[in-house]
Design brief:
about 350 residues; mainly alpha; MetI-like fold; two-stranded antiparallel sheet; about 75% helix; flat
């Protein structure tokens, strides 16, 4: 290439650089270019539909017509209609199941972190239900709870006659508990894996030091594991409570929301798609969002009160508590020796 051509190329490059304003402007243009499409998709498929849903909640409308403006009537109906407000009460069963589910997951994860025999097999067996499609889980338990089928046959092996077995899905005193058990069975393994991953990140030297100082498994769990995984516990609790409020697959597949088993999502689906009351269904969705936000804030405040040293690092706090416990055990041992 001749010197003149090289000089012209350099001049064009210099002119382009001066036009763009240097490297900082280039970085900004690249960032904006790469962010434009994701932000556009987010706005089109998330924010704009959400704003439309808020607008629809003030109308008495169907999918095909605009309907009439009714103001806050749809929101009043959410709390005044027995079927809708009753579905919120049904969600309390699933909240209780979420607490049981987290307690079981924490228990099994603690067993595995302490090197229980066959922990790999147990881990795979516990996590496997989460991999099954929710619709399939519903069909499995629909036959499992059917009168005279799997569960009743198992009880029959223990000497309980079929006529003494309750109608698990028809008896309104126990049908919601039976449905909640399906969610506990499915999601315990997922929470267990999350807890186990957090526990494995704790420094092994803490366990070794606590063991040398005479701390048992319960002391290690209480003073080392529990404070160190507080963040994961809060996260799992928030996800479980949110999931319990939006439970859909078990009651929809197993009982179709009949006999008092309709959860908030099942009733909302029925109102929106079967009854074509889109405005009321949108109001229900907004109310559910508010309930989830309030539950999340309440849980955060609760854990902030329980773990008062919120600014202190979790691992550092665990080390301090483990050291305090070890010192107490050492003093007790010294007192016994001197005694």
């Amino acid at each position: 290439m001749s010197k003149s051509a090289t000089s012209q190329a350099a001049q064009r490059k210099s002119a382009m650089s001066s036009l763009l304003g240097g490297g900082k402007t280039n970085r900004i243009l690249v960032i904006v270019t790469f962010m434009f499409i994701p932000l556009l998709l987010l706005a089109v498929f998330t924010y704009i539909p959400f704003l439309e849903m808020v607008r629809f909640s003030f109308f008495n409308r169907t999918y095909l017509d605009e309907g009439t403006f009714v103001g806050w009537k749809n929101y009043i109906d959410v709390f005044s209609r027995k079927d809708i407000f009753g579905s919120l009460i049904v969600s309390v069963y699933y909240m209780g199941g979420a607490v049981v589910q987290l307690a079981l997951a924490l228990f099994f994860a603690s067993l595995m972190v302490f090197k229980a025999k066959g922990s790999s097999i147990y881990k795979a067996c516990m996590f496997f239900p989460y991999l099954i499609c929710g619709i399939a889980v519903g069909f499995i338990f629909k036959f499992f709870y059917a009168h005279g089928y799997v569960l009743d046959s198992i009880l029959g092996l223990f000497g309980i006659p079929l006529e003494d077995c309750p109608l698990w899905l028809q008896n309104q005193n126990i049908n919601n508990i039976a449905l909640v058990a399906t969610s506990v069975w499915r999601y315990t393994g997922q929470n267990m894996v999350l807890f186990l991953g957090a526990m494995m990140s704790v420094d092994n030297e803490l366990y070794e030091a606590a063991s040398l100082d005479g701390a048992g498994r319960w002391q290690q769990f209480k003073y080392i594991i529990l404070p160190s995984i507080k963040t994961i516990i809060v996260l799992n609790l928030i996800l479980s409570i949110s999931g319990s409020l939006s439970a859909f697959e078990p009651p929809y597949v197993i009982t179709n929301g009949t006999m008092g088993t309709g959860t908030y999502f099942v009733i909302m689906n029925r109102i929106a798609h079967e009854n074509q009351k889109v405005g009321l269904a949108c109001a229900m969705a907004i109310v559910l969002l508010g309930i989830i936000v309030l539950c999340t804030i309440g849980q955060n405040l609760f854990f902030k009160y329980v773990f008062k040293d919120g600014s202190e690092d979790d691992v550092t706090r665990a080390e301090r508590k483990a050291a305090q416990k070890a010192a107490k055990l050492a003093r007790r041992g010294g007192a016994r020796v001197h005694g």
